[in-house]
Amino acid sequence: MRLPIVAGNWKLNGSRESVRLLASEITDKSFSDVEVIVCPVALHVPDVASVVAGSSVKLGAQNAAFEEGGAFTGEVASSMLAEYGCTHVIVGHSERRSLFGDTNESCAQRHQAVLNAGLTPVFCVGESLEEREAGETLSVVTGQLDAVFEHVGNAAFDQAVIAYEPVWAIGTGKTASPDQAQEVHAAIRNMLHARSPEASDSVRILYGGSVNAGNADELFAKPDIDGGLIGGASLKSADFFAICDAAAKQYSQA
Ligand code: PEP
């Protein structure tokens, strides 16, 4: 069984004081049977790094540049994030794709840059409501993954995490049903198998989209759902802990 991951995407929230407090509440709890990652805004990374240092909680960033340096105003390079203790970087979140112009190709370049710096991409895929209703979910997700395979090669996800996040479920309170999510997760694992049979069994595929303390259990009970990427519910430690516990329970009972 794969060790589950619960990653908190704090998005553009918090102050220096509030993120330090949230991070210290999280590091005060001892986690077993689940890998926990917190992803503050880049500017808060040094503060959060100093709080999580020495704990089992890992640090992630929400985005990284597709180049290592140069004339890229406003970007942050993966190697810089690594210097401050980040181990993971979210790549291709739907908010980056829909609001900031990220394309399948630029996400693939970012993924490569993250890997080049020795960090682990948490690569996000997912369809819009229109695409789901048009029956295009699997072709959209395949296209998003294929762009990375084309750029990086068949080993693109061997050292990565994938997050399936249906766009219509992010921040909306509408969650994919466990069966809907499992169907896509299993299809993703099949796609991986065709490219890298060894990795397809070990890659963690997280579900994201309005996961909360009430629905985490039944989502994480599905065989191809290896934890969650959590937005809103990661901002309150009690909710976040309940989600971490739900993931850990699946692992310890397996
Ligand atoms: C996200 O932003 O990755 C996310 C899943 O958000 P939420 O949990 O709020 O839907």
- Give the ordered list of helices and strands: EHEHEHEHHEHHEHHEHEH
What's the multimeric state? Answer: single chain
Largest sheet: 8 strands, parallel, barrel
Roughly what percent helix?
Answer: 40-55%
The CATH topology name reads TIM Barrel
CATH architecture level-2 label: Alpha-Beta Barrel
Low-confidence stretches: none
Tally of individual domains? 1
The rounded distance between the terminal residues' Cα atoms is 7 Å
Strands ordered across the widest β-sheet? 1-2-3-4-5-6-7-8
Bound molecules: phosphoenolpyruvate
Task: Tell me the radius of gyration.
Answer: 17 Å
SS summary, helix count? 11
**Beta-strand percent range:** 5-15%
Name of the level-1 CATH class: Alpha Beta
Shape: globular
The CATH homologous superfamily name equals: Aldolase class I
Arithmetic mean of pLDDT: 97
